[in-house]
Design goal:
This protein is an alpha/beta fold. It has two domains: 185 residues, 3-Layer(aba) Sandwich (Rossmann fold), CATH 3.40.50; 169 residues, Rossmann fold, CATH 3.40.50. 36% of the residues lie in helices and 16% in strands. The chain is built from 15 helices and 15 strands. The chain binds nicotinamide-adenine-dinucleotide (NAD).
């Protein structure tokens, strides 16, 4: 199959859909791989890295979209990219269609068969193509938070691990899922005094087990949150209620109870944020201050470490990519219910009922489409 990978065009997106490693795996199985020139540069992969493993380089995006039977990307296609999609072509990328009527309309009009990374599932009920980015954002959170804690960056001048004779920073992580556990791992590693809060007792038990006493777990009642933020040097927001906006767990009034110069890192900002005073920021201008509290609210944190993120995403997408290229999309989703869960549009039909519900568009399930 002809697999194509264009350069990402969304502002500040440095990842690339296909790593040289993934491209090499596809080529080994007899597929042709076409990469737009410069597509990998943001993640540190040159055109030569791709040609060395047998991929071809295309001069522009149009040359990729024109010939690719399977298009691999990272971000949802932007309007000029959508204009190049066509029926008979498969698009495999993050889509996030529910809040995006214009993109949904364009994908349906193009007739493309689109499969969304974010709705592919796994046998444990997880989202395997979202999890790697949560891992990245989680591990990054204490790192950026500790930078923000430095005096010159607006913080209260506290070192995460303290020093002998001086207490370490108090880090409170609200939400102990993929992001929260990854954040805890790094914050514990930096020597901070870490508390993880969650509403799931089984999840707290799990964290208690794997961290073997290196952190404290706390049920996330409103009262416990109010108490813990009063002594926190850093609070990391990492909650998720699937399909819903993040609940606001720290109010503006509570900021005045926190130590001046404490830092809030709101990883859940992509779902609206879990602190009342959060608003999305960018890597160019990542922090701002409200009532003496430093806020870091970058909505695409993995972009800061594009190379690591690209490699992590590439590892996770590879088995699905090889199945799609090897068997064709129809057989691949017949064989794999988890990949099937990602099917979003096909020949002008919406195949994601939740997106249909959000946008008021009639939808069938992927099973109904296959049966029809
Ligand atoms: N900013 C970024 O760049 C970025 C990157 C990746 C993920 N995220 C976001 O991070 C958030 C967390 O993602 P995840 O993969 O860890 O999700 P997850 O489902 O693995 O974990 C979420 C956790 O939040 C807990 N929770 C739900 N409501 C709660 C509440 N009221 N109080 C305390 N805990 C509560 C759940 O029990 C669960 O353990 C999501 O909003 C995700 O979109 C942001």
């Amino acid at each position: 199959m002809r697999i194509g990978c264009p350069k990402e065009v969304k502002p500040q997106e440095f990842r690339v859909g296909l790593t040289p490693f993934a491209a090499a795996e596809a080529i080994l199985r007899g597929h042709d791989v076409l990469i737009e020139t410069g597509a990998g540069l943001g993640a540190g992969f040159t055109d030569d890295d791709y040609t060395a493993i047998g991929a071809q380089i295309a001069p522009d995006a149009k040359s990729v979209f024109d010939v690719a039977e399977l298009v691999i990307k990272v971000k949802e296609p932007q309007a000029p990219e959508r204009a190049m999609l066509r029926e008979g072509q498969v698009l495999f990328t993050y889509l996030h269609l529910a809040p995006d009527a214009a993109q949904t309309r364009d994908l349906l009009a193009s007739g493309v068969t689109s499969i969304a990374y974010e709705t592919v599932t796994d046998a444990r009920g997880g989202l395997p193509l979202l999890a790697p980015m949560s891992e990245v954002a989680g591990r990054l959170a204490p790192q950026v938070g500790s930078w923000a804690l430095q005096k010159a960056n607006g913080g209260r001048g506290v070192l995460m691990g303290g020093v002998p004779g001086v207490r370490p920073a108090n880090v409170v992580i609200i939400g102990g899922g993929v992001v929260g556990a990854a954040a805890a791992r790094v914050a514990v590693g930096m020597g901070a005094n870490v508390t993880v809060m969650d509403r799931s007792v089984p999840r707290l038990s799990y964290l208690d087990d794997i961290f073997m006493g290196k952190l404290t777990t706390q049920y996330a009642s409103a009262a416990a949150t109010a108490e813990l933020v009063q002594t926190a040097d850093m609070v990391i927001g990492a909650v998720l209620i699937p399909g819903a906006a993040a609940p606001k767990l720290v109010s503006r009034a509570q900021l005045s109870t926190m130590p001046q110069g404490a830092v809030l890192v709101d990883v859940a900002i992509d779902q609206g944020g879990c602190f009342e005073t959060s608003r999305a920021t960018t890597h160019q201008d990542p922090v701002y201050e409200v009532d003496g509290i430093v806020h870091y609210c970058v909505a695409n944190m993995p972009g800061a470490v594009a190379r690591t993120s690209t490699q992590a995403l590439g590892n996770a997408t590879l088995p699905f990519l090889l199945a799609l290229a090897g068997k064709g999309w129809r057989q691949a989703i017949r064989d794999d219910a988890h990949l099937r869960a990602g099917l979003s549009t096909h020949q002008g039909r919406l195949t994601s009922p939740p997106v249909g519900e959000a946008l008021g568009i009639e939808a069938v399930t992927p099973d109904q489409l296959l049966a029809g």
